[in-house]
Amino acid sequence: MTFDAEARSAFVKKKAIQGTFWSYLSYILGKLLSFVTTIILARILLPEEFGLVGYATVVIDYLDVINTLGLGTAVISRKDKIEEASNIAFYSSAILGALLFLIAWIAAPYAALYFNEPAVTPLLRAISTVLPLNALGAIPGAHIQKNLRFKIKIIPDFTSSLTKGLVSVLLAWAGFGVWSLIWGQIASAVTVTVLYWFLAKWRPTRQFDSQVSKEMLTFGGHIVAIGFIGVLLNNVDYLIVGRVLGAAALGYYTLAYRMPELVIRTINLGVDRVAHPILSTLQWDQDQLRSVYRNYLFYTSLVIIPAGIGLALLSAPIIRIFYSSEWEPSIPVMQWISLAVMVASMGHIPGVLYKAINRPDILNKLAVIKLPLTIAILWYGTRRGIVGVALGHVVLSFIKVILDTVVAGRFVNFGLRDVLKTLSPALWASFVMGVALLPIVLFSNLPDLPKLITSVTLGGGVYVGMLYLVDKKLVTKVSSVVRGAFQR
To answer: Helices then strands (H, E): number in the chain?
Structure first.
């Protein structure tokens, strides 16, 4: 390896760690605000009201995937003629955002009919205003991400979450009920769009190129298909639970996801923001690509695997402490969902890899296998209520991760055995941690708060100690890598 190659490797590693840190910090701050907001709202609003908003937001999630035609991702992946690509992306997104707002307005009564809930119509029409707002901010936001300005991205992420929380809580306190959640989301969309425009060092021009436009729309088409199928895969449970089990069940089910989302999915989203531009720069360097791919799996597993097991074991005190005993039906759901999200997170990096190497079509092909299987298993799970749906997610997570890992391994020469070897320190340490916590969780008569504090303290100590025993140099190595990434 030449000096230049070594220097490039060190630079990429440093940028990857710095970017992941700032991106995760950005997300975790936003999610913490969202978590605090949910704690307050759970004591003001009813499960049925959370479920009603869930009906409307699941429809918006599908439309929002189409909203920018995947062109923000295409801009990030673009290596030449960035200005022309950004212009076609911005104007196309703006037009489509307005069109989708009209579609949502017209389709609202049909969505209400599907969920057997007339209140969905006005709620969906109101929240659909986020579609044109998101479209206007997508490309400025993509430029912040493309330029690896992850530190500055904390500002819009945190401020929009703060706005959403304040508006929702104040309106709920004032008696606006379910509408407090709707107006909170609209206020958040306005805030993040304004801040993206203020912070991005880019403005649209009239500079276009027909070939670039064609390439962008082709790439974007694949991303839209991936996103739409991905949202369907991720949200089909909401469609099924809402249709079969009703608004109250959907409310309990939705809340059970909040903590796993805060702790685990936030890591995935933070990694996605960084890994995509980083891997894109390495798509022609097989060795570097494999190295970064392996490192992302390794370092994220050190956090995600113990977090998933810990959340599953401590779901009961977490629900009762933060949301009150009124939400106890969410406890068994959160236990299974924590494990499902933990397993699924190990299959997140392969998806980022496909986009980074300009092969998003692979995700579509894999989705053809995953989608019917997902619908069948989750629909069958409704026979045992929301707990059955959550258990179905665990089964699906293992199937999907194995499939993704095997396929991705062919592109970076990193097979399933290599992945298991990479994850083994976190797996062994987390297993011992879980065994150590079982007596406290199952047999202790401690009140919920002392039980939670004791379990987190003991679990963290056992986990770090086991990592040290598995590899005495590992803890030192992780600390050294993180410190080195932030040294000037």
So the answer is: 21, 0
